[in-house]
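Sample intake sheet
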Amino acid sequence: MDVELHQAYDAYVTSLPASEYHVAHILVATQNAASLLLVRLQSGANFARLAREQSADDSKVRGGDLGWIAPGKLPTAFTDAVKSLKPGQFTDRPVHTTYGWHLINLLDTRSASAPQFDQVKAQLAENIRDNRYQRFLADSLDGAKLQ
């Protein structure tokens, strides 16, 4: 089982994104509202202050700060916009997701670090057991005659 656990860990680590992003955003309900805020940002308005005043989600108490995120944790359009930015930049157009319209500010990037094997070993073992059980059920049903 140890070999299988290490193989599962290696596959998991390989699947992780290479970078994480520290982002802030301003979320509003309409494209028009986002466009008006974008004009203010382009004129030199403070991103965090605008987020506190205008954002529709609870990140506004932190100036729109969402903390560190990894690709795949947020909608694709959001993540794609973040990946196109350099630290200190904000999006040059509003980004639409199912949550609304975002203006996104990339604060920083860092290399993603994988958890240590011992931190995920129990979960990996559970996943392996679950997969074996699912295969057993599928194989059993394939051999069963349903009337």
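Comment: The helical segments are 2-15, 31-42, 47-54, 76-83, 117-143. The chain has two domains: 2-12+115-143, 18-111.
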